[in-house]
Amino acid sequence: MIRWQNLWRFIPLFGLMMLLLTGCGDQTISALKPRGPVARDQLFLMKLSFGIMLLVVVVVFVLYLYVLVRFRKKKGDKDIIPKQVEGSHTLEIIWTVIPIILLLILAVPTVQYTFKLLEDHRDNKDALHVKVTAHAFWWQFEYPELGIATAQDLVIPTNKKIAFELTASDVKHSFWVPSLGGKMDTNPGNTNVYYLQADEVDVFKGKCAELCGASHSLMDFKVKSMDQADFDQWVAKMKTPAAVPADAQKGEQIFKDNCLSCHAVNAQGLGAGPNLNGFASRELVAGILPHNDESLKQWIADPQSVKPGNKMPALGLKDDQINDVIKYLNSLKLK
Ligand code: CUA
């Protein structure tokens, strides 16, 4: 049996593991590898505050070790208490003034950057506007200027400001794309605004960063950045969905009877569930599963086994009906 008293022995091991594991990173979801101007500004602030903290820790530890060694009781020393110092004005002033200076060094750029990011956001004549609505446990993205809506995969052009308006339909969530910038809360009943921008073509990972329910940790999304020309093409494709092939029409009918009341399948429809226009071209199923028939089957047959607490009902479809629906979903390509 484990002696709980002895567990403290493992603390250095845990510490070492923590150091090792913090080295595990992913280029597409790391605030330490900024991929846009907002994330770069924010990383500068992180480095600045970390630098100041490191300086304080080093100075304190050096003093501590110095005192340990300097005032150690040596062999032959008598049991005496050294002279006690109290109320030294000079020392009091020094250790009050130094933190004030450090806080000023931290505060001035932080306030400066906060207002700079706000100014940059307000100067958004050329920005692309995206309205984000967080639902338990998925993300809805609307492009009011373009007349399209999508879910789970946010598609954006590179080197262009994306001005976000963020809200939620049920509880508080938080929109976070670490590679592009810090998080922003999405609150039911009000709208938060900020902007992000991507330098290059890539697929970034996004997360919900506010504990929102049983599947909070599964409330992922993707951000696909593409060149303006490719983005324009994507918009055009979203507006003219591919025709449903003959062998998928049976599935289309089942979908219409069972799913269409929540899932729109057109350019800008919104419903209780994600808009599935162009679904076959999305990265993942339900935001977390690899995009294949097996995942779709699992999701449609038993949604709660994939994302506990989500609002999609198990429809009780038969296996061949599910297969037909999958055939239909696979036909929803952006041609
Ligand atoms: Cu939504 Cu956590």
UniProtKB/TrEMBL annotation:
<keyword id="KW-0249">Electron transport</keyword>
<dbReference type="InterPro" id="IPR002429">
    <property type="entry name" value="CcO_II-like_C"/>
</dbReference>
<dbReference type="Pfam" id="PF02790">
    <property type="entry name" value="COX2_TM"/>
</dbReference>
<keyword id="KW-0479">Metal-binding</keyword>
<keyword id="KW-0812">Transmembrane</keyword>
<feature type="transmembrane region" description="Helical">
    <location>
        <begin position="49"/>
        <end position="69"/>
    </location>
</feature>
<feature type="transmembrane region" description="Helical">
    <location>
        <begin position="90"/>
        <end position="108"/>
    </location>
</feature>
<dbReference type="InterPro" id="IPR008972">
    <property type="entry name" value="Cupredoxin"/>
</dbReference>
<dbReference type="InterPro" id="IPR045187">
    <property type="entry name" value="CcO_II"/>
</dbReference>
<feature type="domain" description="Cytochrome oxidase subunit II transmembrane region profile">
    <location>
        <begin position="23"/>
        <end position="121"/>
    </location>
</feature>
<dbReference type="InterPro" id="IPR036257">
    <property type="entry name" value="Cyt_c_oxidase_su2_TM_sf"/>
</dbReference>
<keyword id="KW-0813">Transport</keyword>
<dbReference type="InterPro" id="IPR014222">
    <property type="entry name" value="Cyt_c_oxidase_su2"/>
</dbReference>
<feature type="domain" description="Cytochrome c">
    <location>
        <begin position="246"/>
        <end position="333"/>
    </location>
</feature>
<keyword id="KW-0679">Respiratory chain</keyword>
<dbReference type="Pfam" id="PF00034">
    <property type="entry name" value="Cytochrom_C"/>
</dbReference>
<protein>
    <recommendedName>
        <fullName>Cytochrome c oxidase subunit 2</fullName>
        <ecNumber>7.1.1.9</ecNumber>
    </recommendedName>
</protein>
<dbReference type="Pfam" id="PF00116">
    <property type="entry name" value="COX2"/>
</dbReference>
<keyword id="KW-0408">Iron</keyword>
<comment type="function">
    <text>Subunits I and II form the functional core of the enzyme complex. Electrons originating in cytochrome c are transferred via heme a and Cu(A) to the binuclear center formed by heme a3 and Cu(B).</text>
</comment>
<feature type="domain" description="Cytochrome oxidase subunit II copper A binding">
    <location>
        <begin position="125"/>
        <end position="237"/>
    </location>
</feature>
<dbReference type="InterPro" id="IPR034236">
    <property type="entry name" value="CuRO_CcO_Caa3_II"/>
</dbReference>
<dbReference type="InterPro" id="IPR009056">
    <property type="entry name" value="Cyt_c-like_dom"/>
</dbReference>
<keyword id="KW-0186">Copper</keyword>
<keyword id="KW-1278">Translocase</keyword>
<keyword id="KW-0472">Membrane</keyword>
<keyword id="KW-1133">Transmembrane helix</keyword>
<dbReference type="InterPro" id="IPR011759">
    <property type="entry name" value="Cyt_c_oxidase_su2_TM_dom"/>
</dbReference>
<dbReference type="InterPro" id="IPR001505">
    <property type="entry name" value="Copper_CuA"/>
</dbReference>
<comment type="similarity">
    <text>Belongs to the cytochrome c oxidase subunit 2 family.</text>
</comment>
<keyword id="KW-0349">Heme</keyword>
